[in-house]
Amino acid sequence: MSVSEELLGGTKEYDVFELVTDALEYVDKYEKSKDKRLLKQARDRLKRTLKIDPRHFKGRYFQAMVYYLDGNTKDAIKQFNELLHEVESKPLANEISYNLAAAHSEARDWQQAINLFNKTINNTRHHPALNLLARAGLVKTHAEAKHSGAAEYVAEIVSEPEIEAHYVEIHRILSLNPFRWLLSLIRGKKRIDKKVREKVEELIADARAKEGLKFPASRRLPLMILIGIILLLLVVGIAALLFVSYGVRLQ
Amino acid sequence: MKRSIPHWYQRLLLLLGLYAFLSVVIHAQVSFVQITDLHIFDDVHEPTDNRLDNKAALASCIDQINQRITDNNGVYDFVVITGDLGIEHFVNRNSEENTQSIDEKLRRGASDFASMLVLSKVRRWLFVPGNNDVPGEQPDKVKYYHLFIESLADEVRKSNEDFEIIDLCPKENTEASRQYDSRSGLFRIKEKSQYAFIGFDNTTFKNLDPEANVSAFRRGAVRRINANFELQKKHVAQITDLLKDVNITYAYIFYHIPEIDDPHLAALGEAEDSIKTRNADKTLTGDAYGRSAWFVNKEIRDQWRQVVNHPKVFGRFAGHFHDPRRTTYQNFAWMTSSETYLSDSLDELHVCPPLAQKFQETSTERARGFQDVHIDDRGMVSTRIFWLEGAGWNLSADRAAVEATSLKQLEMGLTYENLGRLKEAEAAYLKAAENDWQPTRQKALASLKRVVYEQDSVRERYLFGPMRAAWSVGITGFFALLPALLVVLGIYVYKWWRGRKDGKYQLKIGPIIDSPKGEAGAIFERVTTMMHGRMRTHYKRRNLIEGEPRLPMIASSQSEDVPTIIESFLPGGLGKLMALLLKRTESPKYSIVGVMRSDIFMRNRRIFLSLRAEGESLKNWSVDGNADESIGGHKKLAYEALIHVVRDINK
Question: Is the confidence at residue A2, as pLDDT, over 50?
Fold first, then answer.
């Protein structure tokens, strides 16, 4: 079964489609307002969805998400675990694995969280956004574990140099690579989504604060310099075009 | 019956026209070099001996002539030496010497001279005697000149059978005249027979007093004038006789002593002995000729005037002077009595500077050189002097500048002509023609004639000219539009690529045709669009980062505006072209079309909907429904159609 099939599964029923869409809209609104009542509405729609179609994948997935967002990590972990065992699509499995890791981290199950984050990192070498999130999740979990007094415990699972390597790698992915930037410009696709970038920056800023700022900060090329370079290239290009045009006319 | 021109007559006219068009009248032209006063045998006066220097100058002159032939790919018809090799040096005039000894000296001198001449690429050399080739300027002593020339001819033939030595003043039949003498000879180039070159022996025209050193006022010169009178008269008359030849169109006379003032005498004051002597004999020689190089009876001069004014005589070439001032040879403004000679047509007299260093050793300015002569197809002469400067040969600065300018303009004209820019070519050739050196001027005029003809020709005026103008405008326009076209092409290629890429995700909704009122179809289209929006909400990217199905884009929402904007932004045809190209790039893969039919009371409705992919039917729906439930029914049907597209895209 392909990714799309899993996500499209059960949407043949129009009513199911409408209920899930309503639920998703409530989740979207919650993310903006953080109003827990909206999560209740979403949960209600998803419940009705699963009454009609108990195996509805997307309904179950977002039910787990709503549990997680509502602080019900126990049910979230249970639901994600079920989905992880059922899912056949590897990319989707990685996402569920990441969410499961996040849920374990939230539940302060450091070992499970770190192992799942590591697993996600290893499986997403060609998926920079998820890889970045997993690394950020890992360093955040590590920082929180240390902060909560489990430093010695987590040190047995993941070493300090490993964490530092993750920081370096995060900065490398976030930093400007002109070649990749041009490639993404030509392809019309952003390599790292803005929301993902912001989420990652938020996670590592939090982690660094908890680690006492001992890990390196991101060194992004200032935006104004980038704009300046682009403008300069444009001016040079136009000048060259004018020069060629004028030169040809002179002949 | 209609009469027409006979076929053969038409053909004849055509041939005549072609002949007139193609035939170019080729006129003969003559080029030659004049060298004079070489003094390679006699330029020795204690303590100075210039003979070696003079020989070196001759060798250099021959080399320069050869160089000019090579560089200009040109041909000189001959070289003429107008006297004063210095043959008199072989004869001791004050003592009796045996003939065998003189002959031997002449032969050795001729051999020496021949060894230099044979190095020349010009194989025809003409000679006239100078006063220093005739010992004591005594008429019968011209025999030594003849002996020398005969020996020279023998010597050069030993090296080259084709080499011609032509004596333009050969010996007279002495039996008839009972006196050893020379006569005027005539030379014509075989293929250019209208030109005649006549030699004139005037070696006695100074009427030198053989014992002048004894007393300044001796009457020896006067005795000579009278003694040589008949002989001199005969020599001038010989020229007049030769000119009677009807085959001669243009005649040119080579002689040694020019009839004009001698620059040496012209510089002397009235109190000088030489001038006093001459003035004493004015009645015999004529009032105005006291400083002339000729010291002859005025009757001789009158007779000569007839030669000068003869309509066939187009040029006279002389030498004799050793004045170190170059202007002496470039114009005759220096003469004290130039008006006297005007009637003698000074324009046709060309005095060549000497090659020898004689009498110029101590002067700061030196005038040594040879004369480059060109005679055009109308017999007109143009000359220019190459001056010996150090080891090289140069034109005078002003003439060199004019020549350089002309050659540059010729080159420019040719370049313009090859580019088809005839107006510019015409201007350049016109500028090049501002040169009085005939070969260059003729080249410029011939080119000018060619481009003028080209411009005036029918094909140029009505075919090539307009074509060239159109081509020029086209090229200019093309390059002016090139950047815009490149931009359009770039956008088109990009849109075409994007269109191919995105077209498979595009969906066109409609038309949904309904009857009888035509509203329900539009409503269904709107509902489908709304349902598409709902799907976008459903499938938008959230926490799920990958794996959401790709949704179709509704083509109508974006494709129609872009060409309109482009059309209003780009001017004229370019905007329309761009809009057309962009429309061609838009080709949605999917389309939903349908028909609705309501009953007469508008209560029941039948919908037939067809989902198409690349023009082929993907799935069809045929639904009956109640009009009251139409919106809900529409939503479900639209959902089914759209989800089918989504599945097809993501399968």
Answer: no
- Please give the helix or strand (H or E) that residue B616 lies within, else none: strand B616-626
Q: Searching chain B, which residue's CA lies closest to the CA of residue A127? A: B546
The residue among B322, B185, B161, B172 whose CA lies nearest residue B241 is B185
Q: What is the nearest CA distance from B552 to chain A, expressed in angstroms?
A: 14
Q: Provide the H-helix boundaries in A148-193.
A: 151-157, 160-174, 178-187
Bridge partners, residue B388, by sequence: B393
Assigned domain for A118 exists? no
A17, A18, A241: residue with CB nearest B483: A241
Q: List the CATH number of the domain containing A59.
A: 1.25.40.10
Chain A interface, Cβ < 8 Å to B: 2-8, 11-12, 14, 17-18, 20-21, 24-25, 27-28, 61, 65, 89, 91-92, 95, 99, 127, 129-130, 133, 188, 193, 196, 241, 244-245, 248-249, 251
Distance CA B426, CA B303 (A): 48
**Domain stop point among A107, A142, A158:** A107
A15 and A70 in a single domain? The answer is yes
- Subunit contact A17:B479, Cβ cutoff 8 A: no
Question: Is A119 part of a structural domain of the chain?
Answer: no
Domain span holding position A10:
1-107
Query: Does residue B366 or residue A222 have the better pLDDT?
Result: B366
Give domain status of residue A201, yes or no: yes
Query: Which residues on adjacent β-strands are paired with residue B32?
Result: B78, B373
Strands B349-351 and B369-375: unpaired
Name the 3-class secondary structure at B526: helix
Q: Is the Cβ of B646 closer than 8 Å to some Cβ of chain A?
A: yes
Q: How many domains does the structure of chain A reveal?
A: 2
CB contact, 8 Å: B534 with chain A?
A: yes
pLDDT at B2: 45
Query: Do both A185 and A221 map to the same domain?
Result: yes
Please answer yes or no on whether B480 and A99 come within 8 Å at the CB atom: no
B266 against A150, higher pLDDT: B266
Contact flag B647-A8 (C-beta cutoff 8 Å): yes
Same-domain check for residues A131 and A103:
no
Q: Which residue of B has its CA nearest to A31?
A: B542
Tokens of B110: 């001729």
pTM for the full model? Answer: 0.53
User: What order do you get walking across the sheet with B604-613 strand by strand?
Assistant: B553-554, B506-515, B590-598, B604-613, B616-626
Shared domain for A103 and A132, answered yes or no, is no
Are residues A140 and A99 both part of a single domain? no
Residue ranges in chain B modelled with pLDDT below 70 = 1-28, 93-97, 174-178, 210-221, 337-340, 342-344, 458, 499-504, 515-518, 543-548, 556-563, 566, 569-571, 583-586, 600-603, 626-630
Q: Are residues A157 and A92 in the same domain?
A: no
Mutation target to probe the A interface, by most A beta carbons within 10 A, among B472, B535, B544 is B544
Residues A68 and A138 in one domain: no
Q: What H or E segment, with its residue span, contains residue B200?
A: strand B192-200
Q: Looking at the structure, do residues A82 and A137 belong to the same domain, yes or no?
A: no
A175 within domain boundaries: yes
Q: Any bridge partners for residue B385, and if so which?
A: B371
Tokens standing for residue B505: 């995700």
Q: Which tens digits make up the pLDDT trace of B333-389?
A: 888 766 667 555 788 999 999 999 999 988 899 999 999 999 988 899 999 999 999
B648 has a chain A CB within 8 A of its CB: no
Which of A107, A133, A165 marks a domain boundary? A107
Give the tokens for residue B449.
Answer: 């004639």
Position B547 scores a pLDDT of: 55
Q: How far is B480 from chain A (nearest CA, A)?
A: 7
Give the model's pLDDT for residue A169: 85
